[in-house]
Write a structure and sequence with these properties.
The protein has 398 residues and is α/β, with parallel strands linked by helices. Helices cover 38% and strands 15% of the residues. It contains twelve helices and twelve strands. It has helices at residues 42-54, 66-75, 82-93, 106-123, 153-162, 165-170, 199-205, 233-238, 263-302, 311-316, 348-367, 369-372; strands at 28-34, 60-64, 130-131, 150-151, 174-181, 187-191, 215-217, 220-224, 244-251, 325-331, 381-385, 392-395. Strands 1, 2, 5, 6, 7, 8, 9, 10, 11 and 12 form a ten-stranded mixed sheet that branches. Strand 11 (381-385) and strand 12 form a beta hairpin. Helix 1 packs antiparallel against helix 3 (82-93). The longest helix is centred in the C-terminal third of the chain and has 40 residues, at 263-302. The protein is globular and about 75 Å long.
Amino acid sequence: MTSTLSPQRPSSPRTAPPRARPTRSANEENILVLQGGGALGAYQAGVFEALNESCPELAWVAGISIGAINAALIAGNAPSQRVVQLHAFWHQVSSGLPMPGAAHAMTARQALNEASATHGMLFGVPGFFTPRFPPAPFQPRGTPGAISYYDTAALRQTLERLIDFDRINDGPVRLSVGAVNLRSGNFAYFDSRKQRIDARHIMASGALPPGFAPVEIDGEFYWDGGLVSNTPLQYVLDQPADRHRVVFQVDLFAATGEIPTTLAEVTEREKDIRFSSRTRLNTTQQLERQAIALAAQRLLQKLPPALRDDPDVRTLTRVPGPHGVDVVHLIYRSKHYESQSKDYEFSRVSVQEHWASGLADMARTLRDPRWIDRPARMHGVHVFDLASSNPTEKECLA
């Protein structure tokens, strides 16, 4: 299965359409949750392309860092243009280096990846960021140039060209992006159901220091949300629900991996664990919390009327309502020739591969009988990890 990256038109999975029953009904709310991970975000675009074939209507998209950019491209475009604009973005940011013909040989790919990463560090990424000149030590103290290596003015232009922010703020798809308040160190979510969203909010979610300067919004400054948590799942599950939720969670760093044998592999493995463990911890805690909340609601229904005015019971009534959650988990798995630079390596061939991997993993998930034949549940928490080498479906404390 391949996907040819083109700014003009989207590709389609080269496989039979998944035999999945519709993922959205009157009793389901479909949500896409996108982790941060830089250049690996092309995997999320591929996932969305396959998902869009089966589930063209999403109620909510939430993201952090590159996930926020992909989320805004989805929420900020008409359904027929979402994949087109994702292609346009990833085509532009991967145009920095030509793709040599020998790129598919192992040693050539390793060399290409490292050359691409180095090129991006030295010269920037088209439509995304450029090196500051003069560099930070020669910039006036306290200015954005003094506290970051790169200028992201190009990203703002790209976002405003490819995204309809009026559609984000007034359209049918809810958008939430996470950032960190620089002064307090606390997480902040910008939510189109609670405030007006513009390019600053998307850029704040991806302002990873010291590469990028914090973004000012209404007198406060924000950095990349991945500094606190690399997944917005917690925020999504914390919000009130009035129906069953189907959450497609797309992560870019895998918790499991091989024992490193070189210092370069140590750096890559450390990065994977650092970002994936937060996702895994938050996922586990939030799903268990959701399941306990569901159990509490069921328990309240069993209490005699005389106990329902008890202060402890009134506290329990504030937990979320008794609506179940299905979480479909997809995780990008690194190739053997990738290194710790994989999240800032924007070569065209790597972006194409990441996209194709996401496309294949989502299509495989949607064709899996465990997903196709899942029962219509109103309660409980279920997790589907069907694209891994050891596919699983499990119930979490429901």
